[in-house]
Design goal:
The protein is α/β, with parallel strands linked by helices. It is 51% helix and 14% strand. The protein has 11 helices and 9 strands. The longest helix is centred in the first third of the chain and has 20 residues, at 57-76. Keywords: Isomerase.
Length: 234
């Protein structure tokens, strides 16, 4: 039985749930995935500080305590592993897992495995500031050159994805126009470079197909986590 910790990005939690069930049902066994969701009721101000790398020690303690409660609830109902569709909170989940030791199907580990499987020697990482500060993907991919996406571009993509198309200055643009413009900006970063774009924020899946349409190889952390979760849940 798989436990999912949701609430940090409620929309991406729904998407992970949908995608896991879609993959499991597609195998023809006539059933959905055996999974349960525990919601982390994170304060929106704390969430914003985490996404921008401005979290305080009190925020970190709050997150570890909340994640520990979620893990305890999932363990009590019999879950054998856990997945959380959020890269930025993985270090805090790791800390909570020391108290409730369940296997963790993390988006970073799944995406890193895909990078190695496809033989990429370089990636352009697009993620939150916190994921960069924690060196989540640098540590997962020691033999791969991890280039960091220009901060302004990465922030615009994360803001658009997480906050429904708004940043501090207001609406970035209409959906199709903004997604296409940001995808083109990423493609320009890849011109003449080897490797792939690594979407290291699970909310960035909306850029997967537009980037692929521009001929850019892409590794999406949510897609890879979904595949690993579906394999476990079968």
């Amino acid at each position: 039985m798989l436990g999912v910790i949701g609430g940090v990005g409620p929309w991406v939690t729904q998407e992970l749930y949908r995608m896991i069930n879609s993959e499991v049902r597609a195998d023809g066994r006539g059933r959905g995935a055996d999974l349960h969701v525990a919601n982390l009721p994170i304060d929106l101000a704390v969430e914003q500080r985490v996404l921008t790398g401005r979290q305080s020690p009190a925020d970190e303690q709050h997150l570890v305590a909340g994640l520990s409660r979620c893990l305890g609830a999932l363990e009590r109902i019999g879950c054998d592993a856990v997945a959380m569709p959020c890269n930025s909170l993985q270090p805090y989940l790791d800390a909570a897992l020391r108290q409730v030791p369940l296997p963790n199907i993390s988006p970073a580990a799944a995406a890193a495995a895909a990078v190695r499987r496809r033989g990429f020697e370089e990636v352009l990482l697009i993620s939150t500031r916190t994921t960069l500060q924690m060196r989540l993907y640098h540590d997962q991919l020691p033999a791969v050159r991890v280039r960091e996406c220009p901060e302004e571009l990465a922030r615009s993509m994360v803001d658009y994805s997480v906050r429904g198309g708004e940043d501090d200055a207001g609406v970035l643009g209409s959906d199709a126009e903004t997604i296409a413009r940001l995808a083109r900006a990423v493609a320009e970063q890849m011109e003449g470079r080897p490797g792939a774009v690594l979407l290291g924020c699970t909310d960035l899946g909306m850029f997967l197909e537009p980037l692929q349409a521009l001929g850019v190889p892409v590794i999406d952390s949510l897609t890879e986590q979904t595949g690993a979760c579906a394999e476990f849940a079968r």
